[in-house]
Amino acid sequence: MAGGTRLMERIEGRTAFVTGAASGIGLAITEALVAAGARVAMTDWHVEELAAQSARLGTATLAQRLDVTDRTGWADAKQRVENEFGPVDILVNNAGIGPTIGTLADMSPESFDRMIAIKLTGTFNGVHTFAADMGERGDGHIVNTASMAGLIASPKLGAYTASKFGVVGLSEVLWAEMARRGVGVSVLCPGMVRTNLAANLTGDHPGQSDAPRDNPMADGIDPAIVGRQVIDAIRNNELYVITHAQYRPLVAERVDRLLAAFDTTS
User: Is residue 9, in this structure, part of any structural domain at all?
Assistant: First the structure.
């Protein structure tokens, strides 16, 4: 689905900013951007892993610690990447944590607030930091990582679902608003991807990707596939990036329930 803005056919020479880039989907998107010729500011909370991956990828990358809930940290990171690589053309709001499993009625306010602060407000913080500048230049693209959980409600994933639905809605609004300003927007809604996301189920630090623990996501698809899909979405200005076709019937069922509710109105 195209948004009516011009397409970003050239990624070579662009500057990108990726959160949650130390591993998983964020790292795969970073690798795909570097392969396409972009310079990438890689940010994450896990600084040792981030530094190692940046060193592996070479001088096309810059490693920067970032807690996505920290707006001062965002401003500092923006200043550094612009000083070294120039204005950011591509923003990838990917940082997140795994869900707390349990019913909403029994969830602590602290757990709920933490999820929303990292995934939803953290995504807004990235938009707040970079989107206006892109609009002034009339060029750029923003990718927000949501989840299939942003399209289908799942019991015992309440806070996670709320944050992901929020990212989808935020992205749809941003897509409509930024099209007239020459900026594209995509929202990534992956199913199971082979990452360490579940390592953050009870993580102590806010706002970033993965740390090594037991990994129930091991049967997911290769994150490199997702990285390539994101590059295609940036180039073609696709709003929705769907990685798992098998979830279509569940999404269709939800949409059908919504439409059926309209039939009951007078």
Answer: no
Please give the pLDDT value at position 232: 97
Residue 208 has pLDDT above 50, yes or no: no
Instruction: Please give the average per-residue pLDDT across 192-200, as a whole number.
Output: 68
DSSP label at residue 102 = B
- 3-class state of residue 148 by DSSP: helix
- How many structural domains compose the chain? 1
Q: Which of 3-7, 49-53, 141-145 has the lowest mean pLDDT?
A: 3-7
CA proximity to 125, closest of 181, 50, 68, 172: 68
Answer whether residue 188 is part of any domain: yes
Residue 160 has pLDDT above 90, yes or no: yes
* C-beta separation of 174 from 185 below 8 A: yes
Q: Quickly tell me which residue has 């953290």 as its tokens.
A: 122
Residues 6 and 81 sit within 8 Å (Cβ to Cβ):
no
Backbone angles phi and psi of 185, in degrees to 5 = -140, 135
Q: What is the DSSP letter of 120?
A: I
Residue (of 142, 146, 140, 100) closest to 120 by Cα position: 146
Q: Say whether pLDDT at 211 is over 90.
A: no
In a domain? residue 56: yes
Give the closest residue to 226 by CA, choosing from 190, 200, 261, 258: 190
Q: Which of 69-83, 143-157, 217-231 has the lowest mean pLDDT?
A: 217-231
**Residue 75: what are its φ and ψ, rounded to 5°?**
-60, -40
Tell me the C-alpha distance between 220 and 190, whole Å.
10
Active site amino acids:
160
